[in-house]
Design brief:
Helices cover about 65% and strands about 0% of the residues. Helix 1 packs across helix 3. The protein is built from 3 helices and no strands.
């Protein structure tokens, strides 16, 4: 997964997606491409939620 996602975020998401046992047994390289995609998708959702929380209120 390289340096695009922090280790902290990967470990935060791993149990939610059910890949923690795989990572603990074989490292991040043992995670399937499909599960890596799910991790990226979940990380994007986390980032979007954080951006919404930090955004100033919109005026209409």
């Amino acid at each position: 997964m390289g340096k695009l996602m922090s280790e902290e975020l990967k470990w935060q998401l791993a149990p939610k997606l059910g890949v923690r046992p795989t990572v603990e047994q074989g490292g991040w390289g043992a995670v399937s491409a499909r599960d890596c995609g799910r991790l990226v998708h979940a990380a994007i959702e986390v980032a979007e939620e954080e951006m919404l929380r930090q955004a100033p209120p919109r005026r209409i």
